[in-house]
Amino acid sequence: MHTITLDGVEVEFPKPGDPTTTVHALADLNLQVRDQEFMCLLGPSGCGKSTALNLIAGFTQPTSGSVTVDGATVRRPGPERGVVFQDATIFPWMTVRENVAFGPKVSKGAGGAELKALVDEYIERVGLGAFGDHLPHELSGGMRQRVGLARVLINDPPILLMDEPFGALDAQTRITMQELLLELWEKDRKTVLFVTHDIDEALILSDRVVVMSARPGRIRHTIDVDLPRPRSHELITDPAYVSLRHELFEELRDESHRADQLEGLVGGKAGH
Ligand SMILES: Nc1ncnc2c1ncn2[C@@H]1O[C@H](COP(=O)(O)OP(=O)(O)OP(=O)(O)O)[C@@H](O)[C@H]1O
Ligand SMILES: [Mg+2]
């Protein structure tokens, strides 16, 4: 069983450039990600999505409240939580194969023919079979993100934390990557928390979508995405999909508007 629980989580940051005041990033955030569930966190820019994910990853600590994974308080990053960011964390001087081998080499001292077979398997899984000897600069953005994914998946973490992993990709590549992720997850279900501000991405991927409010982030709404699996983008014309999409669109529009007001982008001097 691999679950994530956030209970009454508050996060306040010292305001950059003015440490006497604070930014209230998260307020009383309560969240539970179930075993093998695919959950998306959806919300406007600045609402605290990355802050929430970073707490679970163990990169930051809450000001108050508790963050637990499998019942244990999170204090630091750990091997059971794989993290994927918008920019793939890959070493530019290493080939695809060396990049993918890095984790098991360092953490488990793996090597030899066994590691080579494992690396080949994961490179194949993410569709990079022909690119094992390429360097990152010889790859497209989507291919680099595939390397990033393989680097994390090869460690076989039961929990995946993904912060807008496809946010920098063009629309078509993004769809391809979503379908790849779905295919991988169908085969090997992990507990996933996936941050996005893209409604379609959230709906295609998730079992549940949590909409966060504008800062300070808390949960505004949770919807069950009761659509059949396995899924593909053909789903987007399904009436049940269209209706969920409409619901999420309304929720997100309200919160994005509130977020813009907070930042002084509308309704103030800058709002003309
Ligand atoms: N280390 C930090 N120090 C100070 N303020 C921070 C820090 N990290 C985040 N914040 C602030 O906390 C709020 C939430 O930020 P966060 O990055 O979690 O938002 P987000 O929902 O991930 O936004 P986006 O969709 O743009 O990535 C923002 O107002 C941000 O400026
Ligand atoms: Mg973010």
TrEMBL record:
PROSITE patterns: ABC_TRANSPORTER_1, ABC_TRANSPORTER_2. Residues 4-239 form the ABC transporter domain. Keywords: ATP-binding, Nucleotide-binding, Transport. Gene3D superfamilies: P-loop containing nucleotide triphosphate hydrolases. It comes from the Bacteria. SUPFAM superfamilies: P-loop containing nucleoside triphosphate hydrolases. It holds the Pfam family ABC_tran. The keyword ATP-binding applies. One of its GO terms (molecular function) is ATP hydrolysis activity. This is ABC transporter ATP-binding protein.
